[in-house]
Amino acid sequence: MKEVTLKYIPSGDSAFIIKAGDVISEEVNLVVRKLLARFEEENIPGVTDFIPSYNELMVCYDPVTVDYRQLLGIFKKCAADLGAMTLPDAGVVHVPVLYGGEEGPDLHYVAEYNGLAEEDVIRIHSSADCLVYMLGFTPGFCYLGGMDKRIATPRQETPRLKIPAGSVGIAGEQTGIYPMESPGGWQLIGLTPLRLFNPDSKPEFLFNAGDYIRFYPIDKDEFEQIAAGVADGTYQVRRTQKIDNGDGNRT
Amino acid sequence: MATVIVHKAGLLTMVQDRGRFGYQRYGMPVSGAMDVFSLELANLLVGNDPGDACLEATISGPELEFTGSTWIAITGAVWDPHLNGQGIPMNTAVDVRPGDRLGFRGLRSGCRTYIAFAGGIAVPSVMDSQSTYLRAGIGGFQGRGLIQGDELPLGTYNALLPGNELPPGEATDLLPSDGLTLGKAKRKPRRTKIPEGLIPEYKHEQTIRVISGPEVHYFELAGLRSFLSTEYTVTTKSDRMGYRLSGEPIKHKEGMTNIISAGISLGTVQVPGDGQPIILMADRQTSGGYARIANVITADFTLLAQMRPGDEIRFTETTLDRARLFCTDRHRVIFGI
After folding, report:
1. Are A15 and B23 a contacting pair at CB < 8 A?
2. B252 and B137 assigned to the same domain
3. Residue B110 DSSP SS3
4. CB of B336 less than 8 A from some CB of A
5. Does chain A have fewer CB atoms within 10 Å around its N or its C terminus?
6. Which one-letter DSSP state was computed for residue A43?
7. Number of domains in chain B
């Protein structure tokens, strides 16, 4: 890994950010994830939360129990040996999607907009692995990279008031899944029976930053079957390992 | 187990503790009390741990009936609270008995009231916190604000510990709270009244101290001048998620409005393209894409959380070192009383 210059900037008296770069790239994001993994090993007292994003790691702390300068010292020391660090292989989470129909009312529009057949949109959407750069916006929402530009479609001009949880959509060059019922302007191409966020299960969230998502098409029967399994807790989400984690270190 | 029957809920009354930490990386907001200082004071008065769950009532007060004996304390927004029609003091531990009715009249200043109960509130912990997060419908009492007819279970407190004074009541209250994870009031409160000088004055105009933010260089000098030398009004579009302010637009440098979506911390001041600042509060989303001009310091949150729509804020800059001093000094004063 190349030597990266990290910038430490306070964000008030209860958080600071560590900036790994100024662009959205898998390389910069990998540094953020390495920082997170490294700091977590350390179990630093007074730290209350980490918020990894595309190019930054925010560290939240309790200003009563820890001093910023002390904390900074510990973090800088930990970050010094980052170059030698390799992350375990990234996980691929397989996400079943019922494309089109009532569940994906905008599939037709996305196809038409890009001069494709609906089947092409499904094939293209389910053939790339999308990196979870970060989670945010609402509980369990993933900011994904890696969608094929051939199916990019602008947002709807008038957002829908109610989009069901699990809806899979496209906004510009991004694809994403709605973790909770909410209003929104994404073009909806399908629905997954998986729950991205369940406060009553452990772990509560389906995805971690650094995971890859691989969508695959299912039919109505499979949808019902999986939905029933998700509801009674018997469905096992399929997870595999990605061979190349973007680190350049093939394992 | 003692409960509280809700006769009137008020505008928005819900269970909040210090907050839900450790899940922001998944996009889960912290939530928790808006005015953590008042929450801590209320808890200390009844012998709870400072971060335990209380009721947070916004703008209007609830009307509550107790089915058992316990101690309560009311902090935050300034009212004339009453028990069975008789005035009771704020910022003071008060013992209540079965059948007692608590009500509020005459809000004089502030916006948010905290009611602590000895032993806390016996609602389940969701992801390590009892805080209500309304948008996802989790935590607190059934994931929502209280409504008329609710019966809120209270935690029991260990009345047998030496020094714990007992309000006369049912014999069941004398049982130690064995095996309960809730009901953490294990000690006699250090003090049953908070000295008046410790309670800040909630005014309609406040000076709020900030530290410069990660994107302070995204703004024109004139924009920074507007931010630090003119007044901003808290608009009606303000809630637990954030305060939207209105005032002299804060000018960004050409094309420097948005950032790559990144973390937001408590008190982050974001400035979208229209130049009108937003202060991110307890239910803030975990990440955002607007330039972060500054950050409100922890010590001034108790003032900010008590502001209402129409109130005016003047921002003034301080340093990280001073911010920490303000914070630790106050902490020492509270826990030393």
Report:
1. no
2. no
3. strand
4. no
5. C
6. T
7. 2
